[in-house]
Amino acid sequence: MSELTDTEIVRDLIDRLSRLIAAEEWNGPLNPSQFAALSYLARANRFSRAPSHVADYLATTRGTASQTLKALARKGLIAETRSQEDKRSIRYDVTDHGIDLWKTRPVSTR
Predict the structure, then answer these.
(1) Residue-wise pLDDT tens digits, 50-81
(2) Is 83 helix (H, G, I), strand (E, B) or coil?
(3) Residue 79 bridge partners (DSSP)
(4) For residues 80 and 90, is the Cβ–Cβ distance under 8 A?
């Protein structure tokens, strides 16, 4: 087994700390992934709100991002909009309820 470099050790520690912080903050209606997606959508321009963009931002698969977006839609926090030109193209917009929830969170989690 090879030894980890200092950079790898620091990276692992930062990753662990960020996961612990996210777990501690998960006491509301959204899990950390859902809140990260909502936060992204609240700040993204209308051309960057496709499921693939959310997946890239969350560094996850499109399938996982899709499930996260469906959960947010079921909670009434985002709304799906299909393109008139290409019905396969989907964009998500944050609802007023979603914006209200996003704004009530501490600035450190936005």
Answers:
(1) 999 999 999 999 999 999 999 999 999 999 99
(2) coil
(3) 93
(4) yes
The SS3 call for residue 88 is coil
Q: Which residues contact 92 (CB under 8 A, 6 or more apart)?
A: 41, 49, 50, 51, 54, 69, 72, 73, 78, 79, 80, 81
Two tokens, residue 4: 């980890």
Q: What is the pTM of this model?
A: 0.74
Amino acid at 18: S
Can you read off the two tokens belonging to residue 93? 């917009």
- H/E segment holding residue 96: helix 96-104
φ/ψ bin of 4: left (φ > 0), alpha (ψ from -120 to 50), beta (otherwise): beta
Are 50 and 90 in contact by the 8 Å Cβ rule? The answer is yes
